Amino acid sequence: MTNEWFAKDTSRKVKNSLAAKFEAGERVSAYAPLGYKKHPDVKNKLVIDEETSWIIRRIYTLAFYGAGAAKITRTLTQEKIPTPGWLNYQRDGTFANIYRDAPEEKRYAWTIAQVKSILKDETYIGNTIHYRETNISYKNKKRIRKPQSEWMRVEGTQEAIISKEDFERVQQQIASRRRKQKNATTQIFAGLVRCADCGWSMKFATNGKTKYGIVTSVAPVIHSTVRADTLNPTFAVICCMFICWHGYSIGWNRRNWIEDSGYASCRKTSGVSRQQR
Fold it and tell me: Which of 2, 101, 102, 195 is deepest in the core (most CB within 10 A)?
């Protein structure tokens, strides 16, 4: 009983101490993110690293002009720009088990996940975000993701590498980007359909066993799956209904807006009968 109380009390004190440092604008971390280095004189403070900050500017420039994470990753690899892990190994000897005897290609082996993380990191506009994750309890050290409403955002903790305007522009492009398929076409529902069970985005996929595509959740555990060829007529009906009701609300005659909008033909085409409704 005494040991449990002591562990709980110690956990509380550590959390309070860290919270005080965070509110004071201190950045407590083992490594400085790419583009920065630890201040030589001030503890828990970052300064811009002129030797590597150009890499961050290069990534954001590519994103600003429309390149996606996959294309940026290929560009960085082709231009032989060193990865953050390789730079840390060069400077501090960390990750030696990965880079000591690795081939030269490993130095430039960027991943899409790395690029996405950099493009969404508010560190580069001068902010620091804390409490993105937390332990379940002082007894259970498993890490869980916290909702954004519970994050602590401290602004102006270090000099910005990227302007806020450019950062926001990139975030808008990421949110609106719709991935192309191998045949250079884009599904009309890309970025619009979400899983009814988990809320994750859904993706279009095909396999050799069927002639139709399916739309499935991108979550680690698949929840909802629907045939893609059932979405098109359903979407057509929804659009017709929206147009019809909008017209009716601004004064169309009910009979006219049904006939003029083609709602009946949409229902017939999609196979939605009165009994099915």
Answer: 195
